[in-house]
Amino acid sequence: MKHLLLAVALAVGSMALAPLASAQQPQAAALSIEQTEQRITLETATDLLAYGRAKGDALAILAAVRMMTTVQTQILGADGQPIDLGAVLDEAAGLAGDDANLLAMIDELRPAAEAQYRGGCIWAWQCYWNGWCEYAWLCY
Prior knowledge:
By secondary structure, the chain is mainly α. It has helices at 2-55, 58-70, 85-96, 100-114, and strands at residues 74-75, 121-127, 133-139.
């Protein structure tokens, strides 16, 4: 009889705590979704930047910088140093040549690229023991 009462008490207690646990999950899930979206944006932008550099495509480089400016953190490259988006735009300007439209887009994007947030949390390129590499959200 004691075991039955104990089981009932535990069941009722766990049901009473269930709403408290579920109330905290949406906030954690929203943060996780936002961080996942930013990580995927950075991975795509990094691939696009590599493509633009390999093909000499100023528009691809410009699109990559625009994507990187949407992530409001400091972005570290594979060497662990911050990516200077202003220098990347200079590289795109060199590839754009005399194309007035591309140069105008570069000038429009430059303030956002140079005003990038320098906070305590960063997206850093991390490689793990199994060879898997990805952007990871690191806070100091």
